Amino acid sequence: MNVLHISGSPKGERSDSRKLAARFLERYRVRHPSHDIRHVDVFDGRANPGFGAVHAFHKLAPLFGEPQTAEGKRAWVATERLIGDFDRADKILLSCPMWNYSVPWAMKRYLDNLMQPGRTFGFDAETRQHIGLLRDRPVQLILTRSSTDEDDRTDFQLPYLRHVFEAMGLADIRVLSACATTWRSAEDRQAYIDSFTPQLEHAADAL
């Protein structure tokens, strides 16, 4: 059994989302000491390769009846490696802050690599619906925001992440959101983060 932790903040130990994820994993390791936990930092270019024109032409070539080039095939190796690493996981933990009402650009790039037609999702042309091609498994989202509640119309973080995973076939999505991370003092901020410990422990026990 293995868990893939996808970390979406560049702030390291100062990241609130990473602090919450660390507390979650601390509890999870106690409950499941034999499970393998792997980490992907989406701001690490080695783990999260770029995705540009050559990749776009390569992935769309079969849909347009065009040949795939040798250059495209070489570029696609890194994307396929990322998809394979994700799909090997039995459980997914994604920790991510909100940036400008959505996800950080590096998280978007990771998901742009991951979401590929014919590989992680299909498309029914008659119903115009996406069909998930990956096996379902638990996905725990740990999200932080400064002041945006989950039901706020400006929340483009959680609805986007939920839709992306469901489109690939992962429907067992659990959510923990810290929606008010801005405080006057570091002590108040830390107290707010600490207040999620019971929820994090419960979520870790349930994953």
Explained architecture:
This protein is of the alpha/beta class and 207 residues long. It has a single domain, classed as 3-Layer(aba) Sandwich (Rossmann fold). The protein has helices spanning 16-31, 53-64, 70-87, 105-114, 158-167, 186-194, 197-206, and strands spanning 2-7, 36-41, 91-97, 121-124, 129-132, 139-144, 173-178. The strands form 2 sheets. The chain has a 5-stranded parallel beta sheet with strand order 2-1-3-6-7, with helices on both faces. A two-stranded antiparallel sheet has the order 4-5. Strand 4 (121-124) and strand 5 form a beta hairpin. The chain is globular and about 60 Å long.
The helicity comes to 40-55%
CATH topology tier name: Rossmann fold
Radius of gyration: 18 Å
What proportion of the residues form beta strands (DSSP E)?
A: 15-25%
Query: How many DSSP-defined strands?
Result: 7
Distance between the termini: 12 Å
Q: Could you list the spans in which at least 5 consecutive residues all have pLDDT below 50?
A: none
Give me the CATH architecture, please. 3-Layer(aba) Sandwich
> Mean pLDDT, rounded to whole units?
94
What is the molecular shape? globular
Q: Tally the helices: what do you get?
A: 7
CATH superfamily: Flavodoxin domain
Based on secondary structure, the structural category is: alpha/beta
Helix and strand run: EHEHHEHEEEHEHH
Largest sheet features: 5 strands, parallel
Taken together, the total number of domains comes to 1
> What topology, given as strand order, has the largest sheet?
2-1-3-6-7
CATH top level is Alpha Beta
